[in-house]
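User: I'm preparing a small set of examples for a lab meeting where we compare how different chains pack in three dimensions. I only have the primary sequence for this one, and I'd like the structure in token form so I can line it up with the others. Please keep the answer compact; I'll paste it straight into my notes.
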Amino acid sequence: MSIDQAVYALAAKVRELKPIIETEEATKTAFIIPFISTVLGYDVTDPREVIPEYTADIGIKKGEKVDFAIKSGNDFRFLIECKKVGEPLRLDHANQLVRYFNVTDTEFAILTNGEVYEFYAQLDAANRMDEKPFMTIDLSNIDARVFPHLEMCTKTHFDSETIAASAEQLRYISEIRKVLSAQLKEPDSDWVKQIAARVTSRRMTAQNLEIFTKLITTAQAQFLKDEANRRLRSAQDYEEIVSPQKEEPVETNEPEALEPSDGIITTDTEIQGFGIIRAICCSEVPINDITMRDAKSYCAILYQDNNRKPLARLFFDRKIPRIGIFNEDREMEVFDLNAIEDIYNYSDLLRERCRALRDS
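Assistant: Understood. Below is the structure token output for the 360-residue chain.
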């Protein structure tokens, strides 16, 4: 199972079980141990790799424990402190993790509530755990851009120097994004002055500062809207190029013909769904054999761009999005999706359909 499949599968499990999890221990069992096992790739049954309730005697502090220590031989890889799912993650509520990190050769730590995983390093000072995480994995809002960095933390790819270099970049990018987000919402005077200096020679009196603050706020909002529209248009143009509409005669016992393209809008969500299906099916057939044709009431995923060889249909224009997957009898079974990533839950059915189409 790939890193993205493991994360999406665990995210689906968290969504399903979170409402009934009431304790920290249940959180560990249901979410955190599977994360250590299926995502990070460590053997949770081997005490040489994963040690639960690791005792951390520090000075006069005796018997303190961290929830998990992950080791390779005598070397620590991660210390993990756990909270109940739904609880906010705050370092001042994880003092034993910070203390033990600071007196061992541990380079990385994880603070988690089973849904959000905060990864910490020692970038600011040696043997001192940073106050801010360098990477955050939120299973309720997955950012696929973190997958390459998360894979560096797995048992197979672990390399402390590579992770540290990546961690520094990730943390700075995260902090810069926060600054940009704050300035886009409510620009401060320094930001306004810097931008205004590029477009006017006026002296920034209090009156001019107020005027340009409003102008820059408006311009930023318009820029973001224009950029979103540009990306949407680009996505639509891409689909017109890679999946042109074709009119083909369809026999009466085949799935219904696709509707004409007039008024059809291919959404980003449909493109993402198409990408996920391609990623799943490329293990069985060439990736270019999986094509998409959008229609008004559904988005068809076809084999070899042939509407007599339907693979699946995406029904995303409704309150509850769904995926329909065809079987060997060309009957379509429909499944509800809580999130687009739930498509991974039906990987076996999609691959089975691909094999049937390939071998027919």
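A couple of notes for your slides: The two ends are 27 Å apart (CA to CA). The CA atoms of residues 244 and 306 lie 12 Å apart.

User: Perfect, thanks.
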